[in-house]
Each structure stands twice: as C-alpha cells, then as structure tokens.
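Honest question from a wet-lab person: if I give you the sequences of every part of a complex, can you actually get the arrangement of the whole thing, not just the pieces? Trying it with mine:
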Amino acid sequence: EAGVAQSPRYKIIEKRQSVAFWCNPISGHATLYWYQQILGQGPKLLIQFQNNGVVDDSQLPKDRFSAERLKGVDSTLKIQPAKLEDSAVYLCASSLAGGRSEKLFFGSGTQLSVL
Amino acid sequence: TQLLEQSPQFLSIQEGENLTVYCNSSSVFSSLQWYRQEPGEGPVLLVTVVTGGEVKKLKRLTFQFGDARKDSSLHITAAQPGDTGLYLCAGAETGGFKTIFGAGTRLFVKA
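Yes, you can. This is the full assembly:
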C-alpha cells in the first residue's frame, strides 16, 4: 500500500518569501492533517480536514498560513509571507475516518528553513 | 488546553540495558498512543491504549496506561541499537477529535 506522499522534501527560502507544500494521502483516507514540528518539539496540529471540509484550524496562523483540500484528496499548505520562526518540519498525515484513537499515517515531511 | 509532558527528554544507554520513559498529564485522555520517529521520517504508530490500567506488549516493548487515564509509560527490555529514535506519546482530546503530541523522548542505544 502506498504511503502518504509529500513534496518537496527540503525547502530553503528567505523571510518574507512565500512557500507551498503538497500532500497526497493514502487512497481512501477521509481525514488529512497538517502538523508543524519545530526542532526539539512534538508535532503541533495546524489543520485537520474531513474530506474537503475543515474540522479544526484553531492553531493555524491564519494571517500567513492557508491550506486547502480541493476534491477531498490531496492538499496544499501555503505560507505567505514566511517568518524565521516558521523554520520547522511540516508533516502531513492521513487516517481512515478521523475517529478518536485512530491510527495516523505520516509522510516523511518537508523540512523548511527560513533565512 | 490538554498537555502531555514526556520524561526524560533525552536518554543514552548501552545495548542490553532496560529503560522506561514516561508520558504525564493533569488531564484525562480517552486514549493514548505511542509513536516512534526516526530522523528524516514521520512518526510511526507503535500502540494505542484505551482502557485505564491496560498493559500491552510488543516484543520487547511494554506499554501501560494509568488507571486514571492521565499517564502512560513505555518500558523497553534489553534495548538494541535499532530502538534508537524519538518516542512520542499522543493523546486523543476528551470531547474532541484532536490528537495532541508530547515533546518526545530521544533515545540513543549504543552498541
């Protein structure tokens, strides 16, 4: 079974530039998550989609971050403009139905460095 | 906001030693999960514990969920270099569907 695909693996940008990340979840998984993992910390949920609707985006900095999941399959996460503190690994995950205690399948992440 | 605290933050041991890492909270969680993350990869689920007092074993790994469902532990017997990684606990929020992660315990097992 193919896993969660993310691209690019690495991205280096200067502050105030924009950047976009792409995620393709496991086929048939209704729920898609974007997590931010800063070095030395655990993953922090940015946004959770159920099909193409947003379930939770309470920790998404909406003044600079945006995400969409058109057609309920793949998703993009955008940062515009980027700040130094956005340097982190951005992990995409998916699960079958989004229920409590459900197994999350993670991609390998995109490592973002903002200079 | 429910928080999960993990200890120790870092652990370096010799191959063959036993170890226990902890995941604690002042809040009740409906379930707790343990994930392992290797450098450059996403976390991979090891186990989910749901019932207070539950104990699950996965080869040399033993997971326990506290009776009050506020804490959990992971015990590794006879650690091997392949056990090296970041061990994350994650809890399902009560009254919601958000999964919250702790900061993790970084384990290094020397051959």
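Two things worth pointing out. Chain A has a mean pLDDT of 94. The two ends of chain A are 37 Å apart (CA to CA).
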